[in-house]
Design brief:
The chain is an alpha/beta fold. The chain is built from 4 helices and 11 strands. It has helices spanning about 25-35, 45-50, 80-85, 100-105, and strands at about 1-5, 10-15, 40, 60-65, 75, 95-100, 110-120, 125, 135-140, 145-150, 150-160.
């Protein structure tokens, strides 16, 4: 399992249950990386999508303890149920996509974290752990600066050297 996100200079990842930046290169990277794969999210992330609809062309698994079953995505009610569902898929094709609590809970189980770092401060009210200060994670790849939509971004890959089993 991997995590995918964008973060500002302060590791902020969201504001008012939405993204802080509109960065076409980041959205394209997210879409190309996750399409045809499995995305794992919390209920607030699902609610943040247009019309509260899951992402197209992906298997959507949503941790939603009090949510109703839906035909358009897989609702799981507990972490145990989530892990049982995730085990049905190739771990390299499973991506945690938010929100902050899902990232915090599932980070130890992720082999990699794909971070689009934005060289700006977005006024976040939700944050991701600073992987540069986490001894379990190592930056293994970083792109050259990419200028897009008025922002400078870098596409980074962090490897977890202490992955927990689920």
């Amino acid at each position: 399992m991997k995590a995918i996100l964008h973060a500002d200079k302060e590791w902020g990842i969201g504001k008012k249950n939405g993204l802080m930046f509109s960065i076409p290169a980041d959205m394209r990277f997210f879409r190309e990386t996750t399409t045809g794969n499995v995305v794992v999210m919390g209920s607030n992330t699902l609610k943040s999508f247009p019309g509260g609809k899951p992402l197209k062309n992906r298997t959507n698994i949503v941790l939603y303890p009090d949510g109703e079953d839906r035909d358009d995505c897989k609702i799981v009610r507990s972490l145990d149920e989530l892990f049982a569902e995730i085990k049905k898929y190739d771990a390299d094709k499973v991506y945690v996509i938010g929100g902050a609590m899902m990232y915090k809970t599932l980070l130890p189980y992720c082999t990699e974290v794909l971070v689009t770092k934005v060289d700006a401060v977005g006024g976040a009210d939700a944050y991701f752990e600073n992987l540069d200060e986490n001894p379990d994670f190592m930056l293994v790849d970083v792109s050259a600066d990419v200028e897009t939509n008025g922002y400078t971004v870098n596409f980074c890959i962090y490897k977890n050297n202490n992955v927990k089993e689920y």
